[in-house]
Amino acid sequence: MPSSSDDAMTNPNWTTLPMDLVERIGGLLISDDASDFVRLRAVCHPWRSSTVETKSRADFFYPRNWIMLSNPKSSPSDVCFFNTSTHKSFSFDLTPYLDTYSLFRALDYLFLLKHKITQDFALLNPFMKSITPLPSKIESNRANAPKRLEDMFEQIIHLEGVFVTSSFTIVLQFGQEDFLRTKLGDQSWMYGGFNVWIDGNVLFCKDRLLFVTSDDRGLVQINLANEIPIKPQVEIVISSNELPYGPSMEERCYLVDCDGEIILVTFNRRHHQWESFETYKLDLNEKTYVRLPNLGNRSIFIGHDRTFSVSCDNLSSVPANFIYLCELRRYETACYNLKTNRVKCLFGEPFLNSFPLLEKLIKCCARPCWKLASEDDE
């Protein structure tokens, strides 16, 4: 007859785990994979109770490492998300929300909705299945500044990014230099630009916006952790004359979050040919960078407004140590092999049909978001 201790080993009572341990596990899961955190909370009531504080973290509102592979306009009942680190997938049915809301934009991790009756905007988090109302009023001292959020969308300026800080400040990026900020629960947006011409992409990392300017400032960061209405401060991390690329319009550099490390990718294009690729690892605290000869088990995808890296461990359809250039400046898509130092143009290449995941990653990198509100997005 089995003893009670044997029974406890084969059928453990997980509800008896110390609550501080469950909260700690939840904190680790939420920083890496929000879907696993949701599954953790679904186990039992004690585990849901012990992760209430963890659920209030901005990581849960703004899950990391997830990108949207499918266009929700064409398949709202089966929107597919992919985790670039764990390779897990997550499907979401958007159709129940479309009775009340119209889908205005779909970004990496969030849906921007517009209420069909009130015309108010809101953010839908598919991992939480929660809707967060957004203010409609905009406050600004600028002359001719838009007064409503809808005015921003009616202008030529496009929404290119949504960022959520650890203090639950929501930031919308329009174009390259216009930003709106609000705190969850506030009744208005603060509107402001940073008077810099951004040369490349904007990268959000640890409550900071990072970008390289096309003037003499160089690599710049903006700390968004300050309480509103304090204006974020623009800080030069590395001046332009210390960056590892020249001022020529043919030379470009992009910032990539590569498994928590910031990578600077520089390359040159001469006579319609890609050449001179280099990768560097940035140390934002020391304000330095070191040459990075290879990416190890990862590959990088670079678009004009979006960059990301993918772990290639056990992912045969995406080879490691490659840089994919996805329709930059209306040029063709190309890939660069860091091992052989060779560039190959992929425009019309039939081999992409054999690697559907790679093709989807290239397509979603080439656009900052799925634009759904206008006819030209068909």
Automatic annotation (TrEMBL):
User: Which InterPro entries did the record assign?
Assistant: F-box-like_dom_sf, KIB1-4_b-propeller
User: Origin organism of this chain?
Assistant: Rhynchospora pubera
Give the signal peptide range.
none
* Pfam name, any one: Beta-prop_KIB1-4
Q: Which PANTHER family match?
A: F-BOX DOMAIN CONTAINING PROTEIN-LIKE-RELATED
Enumerate the spans annotated as KIB1-4 beta-propeller domain: 83-337
What is this protein's record name? F-box SKIP23-like protein (DUF295)
